[in-house]
Amino acid sequence: QVQLVESGGGLVQPGGSLRLSCIASEFTLDYYSTGWFRQAPGKEREGVSCIDSDYRTSYADSVKGRFIMTRENARNSVYLEMNSLKPEDTGVYYCGTGFLYACGRGWPEYWGQGVQVTVSS
Fold first, then answer.
1. What is the distance between the terminal CA atoms of the chain, rounded to a whole angstrom?
2. Which of 85, 88, 67, 80 is nearest to 112 (CA)?
3. Residues near 26 by Cβ (< 8 Å), separated by ≥ 6?
4. HSE on the CB side for 74, CA within 13 Å?
5. In whole angstroms, what separates CA 103 from the centre of its chain?
6. Number of other residues whose CB lies within 10 A of the CB of residue 21
7. SS3 for the chain, per residue?
8. Which residues face 119 on adjacent strands?
9. Residues 56-92: b if buried by 16+ CB within 10 A, e if exposed
10. What's residue 100's pLDDT?
11. For 74, phi and psi rounded to 5 degrees?
């Protein structure tokens, strides 16, 4: 059974940083695209970043230059380094992947449980 487990969320002041982690089991992230998504209260889930099997990354305009997504194959994990955080970055962050998922196209088949990120003073 495919499982994705996120960690690293929390409360941070504006301008601060957080690093999210997502570790996968029963699914090899290296072969497929994996994305980070977020959902703010009262809003729809949106894509934040994505990394494909060739390590190409893409980012939403709202996070470009502030967030960095990486993958570590030895740990079957992806990470999201979030810098210069703003209150509007607040939300539940999810990682997602799947056999049919590709960066910029469609939605993942598999999702983690999500982790809360709150940016507030």
1. 40
2. 80
3. 1, 2, 3
4. 0
5. 12
6. 17
7. CCEEEEECCEEECCCCCEEEEEEEECCCHHHCCEEEEEECCCCCCEEEEEECCCCCEEECCCCCCCEEEEEEHHHCEEEEEECCCCHHHCEEEEEEECCCCECCECCCCEECCCEEEEECC
8. 12
9. eebbeeebeeebebebeeeebbbbbebeebeeebbbb
10. 94
11. -60, -30
Q: Which amino acid is at 2?
A: V
CA angle, 30 as apex, 28 and 33 as ends, to 5°? 100
Q: From first to last of its 121 residues, what are the pLDDT tens digits of the chain?
A: 999 999 999 999 999 999 999 999 999 999 999 999 999 999 999 999 999 999 999 999 999 999 999 999 999 999 999 999 999 999 999 999 999 999 988 899 999 999 999 999 9
Looking only at the bridges linking them, the beta strands covering 77-82 and 10-12 are unpaired
Distance between CA atoms of 9 and 27, rounded to whole angstroms?
Answer: 23
* Location of structure tokens 């960095």: 68
